Amino acid sequence: RDLRMSRGLGDVYKRQLLLRNIMRNRRVFLIAKLMSFMTSIVVQQALLINIVLCQNEKMRQKQFSLGNLTR
After folding, report:
1. What end-to-end distance do the CA atoms of the chain give, in Å?
2. What is the rounded CA–CA span in Å between residue 24 and residue 30?
3. Residue 15: strand, helix, or coil
4. Interval 9-64: pLDDT, tens
5. What Å distances lie between residue 43 and 40, 48, 51, 56, CA to CA?
6. Considering just the CA atoms, what is the radius of gyration of the chain in Å?
7. What is the pLDDT of residue 3?
8. What is the DSSP string of 12-27?
9. Alpha-carbon gap, residue 41 to 34, rounded angstroms
């Protein structure tokens, strides 16, 4: 009986380790997914900022060239 109990506790311990590893892996996966999502948002914002800056620069160039034509 003692042998069965100790083996049963060993199984419980193994199951706890397995579940702990699964939960740890799931947390790591979720953190990686969240970081990937946040990175994509940052990249999208950087692209939008770059587009706006390029458009502003084009407008400045047009205004400069129009200003030179009127002089």
Report:
1. 104
2. 10
3. helix
4. 777 778 888 888 888 888 888 888 888 888 888 888 888 888 888 888 888 888 87
5. 5, 9, 12, 20
6. 30
7. 55
8. HHHHHHHHHHHHHHHH
9. 11
For tokens 């800056």, the residue is 53
| pLDDT attached to residue 7 | 62
Distance from C-alpha of 21 to C-alpha of 51, rounded to nearest angstrom: 45
Q: Which two tokens stand for residue 65?
A: 């060239």
Non-local (6+) Cβ contacts of 68 within 8 A are none
Say what the pLDDT of residue 70 is. Answer: 58
Q: Which two tokens stand for residue 40?
A: 């994509």
Amino acid identity of residue 23, one-letter, is M
